[in-house]
Amino acid sequence: MVDDSLWTIFINASLVNNFVLAYFLGICPFLGVSAKLETASRMGGAVTFVMLVSSICAFGIQTLLVAIDAPYLKLIAFIAVIASTVQLVEMFIKKVSPALFRSLGIFLPLITTNCAILGLALFQTNKGYSFVQCIVYALGAGAGFTLALVLMAGLREKLELAEVPDVTRGTAMALMIAGLLSVTFMGFGGLGG
Amino acid sequence: MASSKSSTDEFIKGLWNENPVFVQVLGMCPVLAVSNTAMNALAMGLATAFVLIMSNIVVSSLRSFIPKQVRIATYFLIIATFVTVVDYVIQAVSLDLYKALGAFISLIVVNCLLLGRAEAFASKNTIARSTMDGLGMGIGFAFALFCLGAVREILGNGSLFGASLFHDSFENWVVMILPSGGFFTLAGWLLLFNWLKQRRAKREATTALGLRKEVA
Question: Domain range holding B148?
């Protein structure tokens, strides 16, 4: 059990150790869905929701696995739970908002392979957070992911109109912007712990 | 995919033409996260290559038994099993390495490259070809990780595999070791690959033009 205050955990997960820009988790959707601002913010919302649900599930699984003394099943159990959560969210979104479902497209099932989700589950277990701390950690990580995605999408929308050399078009350019963003986020290093 | 392709071709394509990192841009998370030294990068690359080869073999040998509806979940279970094995082996062999790689060994599970190869290749091809594909892709991945790790370590630490390379007066580029350095280095490599590809395309276009003139 760690006695970090909830506020510290939130700031830490969202800004100081931003999942995308400091831990490199969830780079695939970060590069893939960040071309349009609207899709980016929706994707951020979906990921945050999945993070929250899977974080709660992961907490339960960890308690159970410690109780039955089978920690080696951790990885398999986590990934199974995350996959089914994503399936659930997919069905839910399809029912509630078909338009959103279409705009997220292939990236919705791909949330399963989003390392940020599994990373969150693993980190919270490693850090030994309590139940409430886990929820705050998940919310912070989700907020950080959304922030990074939205910032990136904003930059890329502007960049569409700029004239860049042919070689730098596409992923190479996106990575350079991500690098600069990451430098900026290092400025938050003094905040929190 | 043409079935006339020999298994050597399956091996070669992963190394260069379809290199998972530089060309397909798959599995970026571990590529950026653990490539701050050449040693970490190489260890991570080999661990991933091992999981890739094993999961390719298992997926391709079970391909006629796995029901289509639950195939993704099955692939995940197969991959997760091998990752757990690698996780415990690294912990037993070198605790320092285990600490340096941290949670990223477990995160091999969600490397898109593994699932991508299982779905796109191993589930449709024979065991022998899948093994070659896994070998090629795995070695290509490890090679790319090593390229990144080496550049970052040389510039950021002035050393390679921990051995110092430069005179004491060399000023380390601290930014290369930090997260942003990962993005910049990968961007640099991608630029190089793009440039090579463009140059080749241009050369092919000119030779094609030359041939047409000769015929005329």
Answer: 2-215
